[in-house]
Design brief:
Blueprint lengths: L4 H6 L4 E13 L2 E8 L14 E9 L5 E9 L12 E8 L5 H9 L5 E5 L16 H6 L13 E7 L3 H14 L4 E8 L8 H10 L4 E7 L15 H9 L9 E6 L1 H13 L7 E5 L24 E8 L2 E8 L6 H6 L18 E6 L2 E3 L7 H5 L2 E3 L3 E3 L3 E5 L3
InterPro entries: 2Fe-2S_ferredoxin-like_sf, 2Fe-2S_ferredoxin-type, 2Fe2S_fd_BS, Beta-grasp_dom_sf, Cbr1-like_FAD-bd_dom, FAD-bd_FR_type, FNR_nucleotide-bd, MRET
Organism: Arthrobacter wenxiniae
Protein name: Phenylacetate-CoA oxygenase/reductase subunit PaaK
Length: 400
């Protein structure tokens, strides 16, 4: 199944039940989960290194009633396809303080479990040269990354904690794609025991000793080099870019981790004059304490005597209208979920881009955006989880 690159990065989300093939302990607080993808579903799970999937499960709430919970996790391995046409998806799940899904997964998830897994999505992918031979070459070789003929490039990735997850897939793919490629990885953690994929990173260093430079920065563990000890702040990052890393001739930057770190790196790079189109970033959270709205749409009562917005949306060729009270300040996603529970979304926080739709008419206010590229915004796309109507009628198209 070969599709245009944009469709692979931004295709419509669809869930399928996949079986857990294996669960591997990475650290005391993190696991790697491998899902079996049968040949019949392989086309739905083609992906590019750096993309993510959403997992969907039913979990009991505080009242004991089961409710749907969705969480997004980056794919941590390069694509692979077996002789029988089947494939697999690997994600890493790190336990978060107070995270009910990650806590449950780390404690109880085991091989043989069945879970709903969304088709891969996301734009945290390499765009340098679009790969020699065009993007179609990347897609045709998705399951054989060593065959992707990329232009030689110089890359830098900066990750913290579980932010290493998509970077692992990117690093393996980029280094295998061209013998002239070089990659520097700055990986921040509290201590060695917290380093995910420690052995895999060491193996990658052994395989590409001249082209892969690994810089571990540990905030709570003393290292021989003072520069590699302590918190990764602006001063330390500037020092790294001025000494350990040749920052002036980098073709592409990859940033992944907590909001504060990613924003810090973006600010430092912007101050150094790095063009924005060379910087890719991925957030797992926005750093905001508020929780996303309900998984099935926050309850909203519509009184016909009140002023309302009329929201029209198209999904899978079907069009629906919803009235949304002006005082409710309801997002388009929340309104749509009240009548169509299959409306695509994952994080509901403006991070992943799953709820992307094209604004056909009317105007909206988009509160946050950490997922859409500038050209997508110019072409009229919005994140419906963050968009609220500002005109009496608004129409969006999820199929657009």
């Amino acid at each position: 199944m070969t599709v245009p690159a944009d469709a692979t990065a931004r295709r419509r989300a669809s869930f399928h039940a996949l079986t857990v093939k294996a669960v591997r302990r990475l650290t005391e607080d993190a696991i790697e989960v491998t899902f079996e993808v049968p040949a019949a579903l392989a086309g739905y799970y083609d992906y590019l290194p750096g993309q993510y999937v959403a997992l969907r499960v039913q979990m009991p709430g505080a009242d004991g009633v089961d409710r749907e919970v969705r969480r997004s996790y980056s794919i941590c391995a390069v694509p692979v396809q077996f002789e029988d046409g089947s494939s697999e998806i690997r994600v890493a799940i790190k336990r978060d303080i107070g995270g009910e899904f990650s806590t449950w997964a780390n404690a109880e998830l085991a091989a043989g479990a069945v879970m709903d897994v969304m088709s891969p999505m996301g734009a945290f992918i390499s765009k340098h040269g679009e790969a020699a031979g065009g993007v179609s070459n990347v897609l045709n070789s998705m399951n054989h990354p060593e065959d992707i003929a990329r232009d030689a490039g110089t890359y830098v990735a900066i990750a913290a904690g579980s932010g290493i997850t998509p970077v692992m897939a990117l690093a393996k793919s980029l280094l295998a794609g061209n013998p002239g490629t070089r990659l520097d990885l700055v990986y921040a953690n509290k201590a060695t025991m917290d380093v995910m994929f420690l052995e895999e990173l060491a193996d990658l260093k052994d395989r590409y000793p001249q082209r892969f430079a690994l810089h571990h920065v540990l905030s709570r563990e003393q290292r021989i080099a003072p520069l590699m000890s302590g918190r990764l702040d602006a001063d330390k990052l500037e020092s790294l870019l001025g000494t350990a890393i040749h920052a002036d001739d980098v073709d592409e930057w990859f940033l992944c981790g907590p909001f504060e770190l990613v924003q810090l790196c973006r600010d430092v790079l912007e101050a150094r004059g790095v063009p924005r189109d060379r910087v890719r970033f991925e957030l797992f959270t926005t750093g905001r304490p508020d929780q996303p709205e309900g998984q099935a749409g926050r309850a909203v009562l519509v009184d016909e005597s009140e002023e309302t917005y009329k929201i029209t949306f198209t999904l899978d060729g079907l069009t629906a209208d919803i009235l949304s009270p002006i005082h409710a300040r309801e997002s388009i996603l929340n309104a749509a979920l009240r009548v169509r529970p299959d409306v695509p979304f994952a994080c509901a926080g403006g991070v992943c881009g799953t709820c992307r739709a094209k604004l056909v008419c009317g105007k909206v206010e988009m509160e946050e955006n950490y997922a859409l590229e500038p050209d997508e915004i110019e072409n009229g796309y919005v994140l419906t989880c963050q968009s609220r109507p500002t005109t009496p009628e608004v129409t969006v198209d999820y199929d657009g």
